[in-house]
Amino acid sequence: MNEIGIIMPAYQPDEKAIRVIEELVQVHTGPIIVVDDGSDASYAFNKLDTFRQVTILRHAVNQGKGRALKTAFHYIYNEHPELRGVVTIDADGQHLTKDIMNIIHSLNESDDALILGSRDFSHKNVPLRSRFGNQCTKIIYRIMTRTRLSDTQTGLRGIPTKYLPQLLSIEGERFEYEMNVLAKLKDLKIPIVEVPIDTVYLEGNKSSHFRPLHDSFQVYKVFFLYAMTSGASFLIDLVLFMLFAKVFKIVAPMSFLIIATILARLLSSLFNYYINRHTVFKSGSRKSLYRYYLLAVFIMITSAGSVQLLYSEWLQNGEIILKILVDTTLFLLAFVVQRKWVFKKEKQIS
User: pTM to 2 decimals?
Assistant: First the structure.
């Protein structure tokens, strides 16, 4: 057990955080790193100084859970290279000591996997915002990575030390960092193992600093921005089509609809490409424009072909419903393909 360290990021914690540490030092002899993320002076972290194995790292001001985790990762990697892994825990008292020790045990038995302590959100004591948030995150995570997880918001994680440099390079300073880590694991070829843990919510989870609207947006930001730019591109396409149709109806009355459609789609797609590259995905090589239009052609052909096939085979009076279903599916597919291929970050050659 001595080869595993424990990390607790903490901001304005109450006595539950102290109690968790007090219980852990009774059963675990490895180092315990507590990151005081800019808490007020009134919060008694000095109570932990009496424990030999506890180290307190301090931020002068609150920088967020993601930054606190990265501070601990840096410290572990530089000061405790002998450790084979670390377990991250939350400071709200909702990770039981027995579950933390189970994650440590699972990490000791695995050389490569990142271990997730997964909760059961079907329990009656789970607050509605937590159940709803986890369900939304599960769906988006599955769309983004094609991977199923039962708990995407767990803070109880076992991480082999050899992965810390890769995790330090992942973007995110606050709650979104943990979701960003999960989203990158497949690309990094890091396997995931889920270990069931007790589902504990104390006092309606009021001690959590997670802000549902603000922090949920940070977690889902890329997908939300993608949806917003897609909607904006649709409106631009529609407005341009109307303008071009009015102009070319006089100049080319026999083909004005085709001309208006092509010009509107060309300009709206260039807008969509530029925004996706520079604002949504913030990456993309010289090949990205070529890849973008290959995907656009594929989506267009697939949409038309799928609607026609399904209409002729199964549904004779629901072409609009078919169009909505097919294009919604292709919209989600396009998000994954753009993220994974079109705007994939290219490795820097040193």
Answer: 0.66
